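The following record pairs a protein chain with its ligand, NAP.
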Amino acid sequence: MSEEKWAVITGASQGIGRAMAAEAARRGLNLFLIALPDTELPAVADELSRLYDVESEFWEIDLANRAAIADFVEYVRASRRTVELLINNAGIGGTAPFAEQNPERIASMIDVNVGALTALTRLLLPHLMRQNEAHILNVASLAGWFPSPGMGVYAATKAYVISFSLALRDELQSTGVSVSVLCPSGVVTKEEVVRALALQGFWGRRTSRYPDQLARHAIQRAYRRHRIIVPGIVNRLLRVAGRLTPLRLLTKLVGGRISLKPGALGHAHPAAAEAPQRRLRHATMGVPENV
Ligand SMILES: NC(=O)c1ccc[n+]([C@@H]2O[C@H](COP(=O)([O-])OP(=O)(O)OC[C@H]3O[C@@H](n4cnc5c(N)ncnc54)[C@H](OP(=O)(O)O)[C@@H]3O)[C@@H](O)[C@H]2O)c1
């Protein structure tokens, strides 16, 4: 395998994933970037490649499609690249009463937040275990620690990510692969998030982070093999307080903080439904589609 190291980052077209990609490139890692088709992904790959003088390839796939994930991992294996960092960041969020949520959207949320993260980790793991050192950084959420009325499915998917990451970390203890789970509170990514954080006033300001700040912190700690990464002292206190609070009271308190304006924390991407089975384009080396 080549000595050059690569990072795989899902959901890299915008928000936290884009910032993670920039931070990985700043550290000299080449990039495999994944997101849905027809987004900013090609521009992000091109920009980071030129700015940090790294190679970047982008895969425009729907992560809900397991075959597309398998194709991607097969490509990584066949291309004999060395992946040192896997960041499972892609995720779908949003707030609405469960009874009013679109059932297809709920299924997509579970498919991407849980299914894709699990499938990609499983398929890439043999490759990662062959390295002397490799890191998996799973992006959960502070919400994963609390039952959250108004975003019950989202919080439950993130609870899965936390539980799965901690268990896998222990299973891999005797290997060179470390697993870290990132649990941010609000991250200033898009307009809906800014609105939701503004509604929270003081708490929104104290608990939120900017994506680049978060990415630097998280990747640094993943390389230091931290288990749970909760950015900010207030968020760490909230997590501990949550664990000491009776569940019934905790659920009420969390529910009281969540705005139930539909879409307050994100929306399903319309391109997901139309995503072709797989589309590969290469930002810097002209690899043809459908390799
Ligand atoms: N923002 C926050 O306040 C916050 C707080 C805590 C945790 N998080 C978590 O952090 C992660 C990133 O959040 P974000 O706010 O940066 O999200 P975002 O801006 O909505 O970006 C989500 C990313 O995931 C990709 N994605 C979504 N569905 C996909 C699919 N089916 N196939 C392939 N890619 C898909 C999107 O690709 P397209 O661009 O192609 O749509 C995009 O790149 C998520 O896991 C989220 O739950 C966010």
